[in-house]
Amino acid sequence: MEASHLSKISTFLFLLFASAATLAFGQGTRVGFYLTSCPRAESIVQSTVRTHFQSNPKIAPGILRMHFHDCFVQGCDGSILIDGAGTEKTAPPNLLLRGYEVIDDAKRQLEQACPGVVSCADILALAARDSVVLSNGPGWPVPTGRRDGRVSLASDTANLPGFRDSVDLQKQKFAAKGLNTQDLVALVGGHTIGTVACQFAQYRMYNFNSSVTVDPSISPSFLSQFQSLCPANGDASKRVALDTGSENRFDNSFFGNLQSGRGILESDQMLWTDPSTRTLVQRFLGIRGLLGLTFSVEFARSMVKMSSIGVKTGTDGEIRKVCSAIN
What we know:
Elements: H1 2-24, E1 30-31, H2 41-55, H3 59-71, H4 100-113, H5 120-134, E2 143-144, H6 167-175, H7 181-190, E3 195-197, H8 203-206, H9 220-229, E4 239-241, H10 253-259, H11 266-273, H12 275-285, H13 295-306
Antiparallel strand pairs: 1-2, 3-4
Helix pairs in contact: 2-4, 2-5, 3-5, 4-5, 7-12, 7-13, 10-12, 11-12
């Protein structure tokens, strides 16, 4: 199913993004970078992601979020993949990420096919795209040619968007990476195909602030269901779908949940309660009277922009032999 879905939209998205990616992100990356040096690079990554997805669909949102966290720290350079004390992987925002074994598996196969050619950063960018396709989302041409970074510090993760960040702070963090408010709303929407631990949401129902116990932005009709998902004295590590009713499936239902006061994370629900982002949520929902936005197209466009953040090319960085270790 994922192959036919990709074929239906690939031509349109290629025309939409390919030339723009080459020109707008002219930092040494381009679509088809490995066509001659490693012709099977993209197909190897795609088949590897599919194999792992078939046994565990939850790896798809994990890989997508991993790519997001990688790009927001030191740029899209695979630094999140590096093992060791004090690396990005050990930072609190990254402790629950999953899917590292998929990237390692793809790298092993690529080293056999084309030793020393394909970077871990590119594998992660390609795997993120393929994960979205497997989740019934859009495909897009991924500019490749990134090289791997040699620096990975947990302390650099402080500027990752947080689950309690105000919309203003979220916009500041995205703007610092060259991403606008529409990119913010689109990317947040796409990154909700997975789950989150209850520990990041429980306070909204039981200890919101010094004035009220329950976050007033939670719909009263959703509160009892929310509490049953994350009980007050329950397991804080229990995972709950970020997009209630649509876990592991790429669609725009997340925005409908925000409109209905059913957002799980406070930072997500704020996209509806803040006037500066509510209109974009409404446009993704296709509310009458507003110029609509096609979520799949805009998400793909924003992913191309995000995957160009701080890329290392040419002689900068390295091509790691093993993604978890600097050469």
